[in-house]
Specification:
The chain is α/β, with parallel strands linked by helices. It has helices spanning 13-25, 41-51, 60-63, 81-90, 105-118, 132-143, 173-176, 181-197, 300-309, 327-348, 357-376; strands at 4-9, 31-37, 55-57, 71-74, 94-97, 122-124, 149-157, 201-209, 214-218, 221-224, 230-237, 242-248, 257-264, 268-272, 278-282, 289-292, 297-299, 380-381. The strands form three sheets. The chain has a ten-stranded mixed beta sheet with strand order 17-16-15-14-13-7-12-11-8-18. A six-stranded parallel beta sheet has the order 3-2-1-4-5-6, sandwiched between helices.
């Protein structure tokens, strides 16, 4: 059986998630992590020793000379995505890139053309598609369970950049691109909305705000912030569906506040990443139902009753109960599913559920249209 030989460039927080997911896939026999690259030589050596990775690099171009590579994960700063993705494709390798694909659409267009010319598989790490319940929600929409879709609306709220001493490279456009809140986290929401609806965004109207124009990047240095802390986006999707998103990285107390509600002519459906294992399905004059991660639909009342049954004071856990996973564990499972689907699409022609570079290019166009809309205070059409 063919085995993909994989390398990872950039081992920050998200790069480490990729590394762990690849190592979890290795026992299946069709992928092997053979090289990593991070600018810190001691960190590189430690990780290679800990995870038994044979190739250890501090320069991406040196890693790309590794003769046995088939595929690369690019987990670097946003501003580095283009050059590294381009180099990977020029070497004839498959590529999985972190989002946003690039910081402008001229770059993303070049990558789409290059991938097509070299006949290489591409993916963008829009991992939220791979929560099991999200896949079942898509099936319900396609079956018409919600009826005609009227609208989708929701949030992606975080608080990790709430204070002026909260600094990250993303707050500076030279590293992260012109947009931050919308491009960094709002892009996940937009991709998931398009995936669920099977419709693309056609027009946007945006409002950005930078509440902390100055931030301390060290005890002695303050920088001017040139990216947004908050973004509000109105959208018009194909087929007349309306959308609304609020993305914020300064919402106190919110760690993983990705939510959406889809309203249809028959029913509405609500989901939150803070409770990712299930969604709520509601009708006008009927009790609430729950959609779980296996696709089962049952009355919400039963879920509450099962909680009581699982209380040790009431007699212990039900015999068939699945161990409760943390949000982070559920996210890592989704990350693993995304990467596995990409690998299997390369090796076994498995149908791709992931976003490719063409979708990543489309999302870059949406971000650019939102930036223009905020600047000009008007609706802007998405370039095709």
């Amino acid at each position: 059986m063919k085995k993909l030989r994989v390398g990872v460039i950039g081992i920050g927080k998200i790069g480490l998630s990729h590394l762990k997911a690849i190592k979890a896939i290795e026992p299946l026999g069709y992928a092997e992590l053979v090289a990593i690259c991070t600018h810190d030589p001691e960190k590189a050596k430690t990780l290679c020793a800990t995870y038994e990775i044979p190739g250890c690099y501090t320069l991406s171009q040196e890693m790309l000379k590794h003769k046995n590579l088939d595929l690369v994960h690019n987990c670097t700063l946003n501003a580095m995505h283009y050059e590294i993705n381009k180099s990977v494709l020029e070497r004839g390798l498959h590529i999985l890139s972190e989002k946003p694909l690039t910081v402008d659409s001229q770059q993303s267009s070049t990558l789409v053309a290059l991938a097509h010319a070299n006949n290489r598989k591409t993916a963008v790490n829009f991992v939220c598609r791979f929560y099991p319940v999200i896949q079942h929600i898509k099936e319900l929409i396609e079956k018409g369970t919600l009826g005609k879709i009227y609208s989708i609306h929701g949030t992606y709220l975080q608080d990790w950049l709430l204070f002026e001493h909260d600094y990250d490279w993303r707050v500076e456009s030279r590293y992260g691109g012109t947009s931050r809140a919308l491009a960094d986290i709002g892009s996940h929401w937009i991709d998931m909305a398009e995936f669920l609806l099977g419709r693309q965004v056609e027009r946007v109207a945006a409002d950005f705000a930078t509440f902390l124009p100055m931030r301390k990047c060290s005890p002695t240095e303050t920088i001017t912030v040139d990216t947004e802390d908050f973004a509000s986006l109105l959208m018009r999707f194909e087929g007349g569906i309306h959308g609304c998103l609020t993305a914020s990285q300064v919402s106190a107390g919110r760690k993983s506040g990705l939510t959406f509600e889809i309203d249809g002519s028959i029913a509405s459906l609500q989901w939150s990443q803070e409770h990712p294992e299930s969604a709520s399905l509601t009708h006008r004059d009927e009790p609430e139902n729950i959609v779980d991660e296996t696709g089962n639909i049952f009355p919400a009342k039963e879920k509450e009753e099962s909680k009581i049954a699982g209380n040790p004071e009431e007699g212990g856990l039900p015999e068939q109960a699945r161990p409760t996973l943390s949000r982070q564990e559920i996210f890592l499972e989704a990350q693993q599913r995304m990467i596995d689907n990409f690998y299997r699409s390369i090796l076994f022609s498995e149908p791709p559920l992931y976003a490719d570079f063409l979708q990543g290019h489309h999302i870059v166009h949406i971000i650019e249209a939102a930036i223009e809309s905020n600047r000009a205070a008007r609706w802007v059409d998405i370039d095709r």
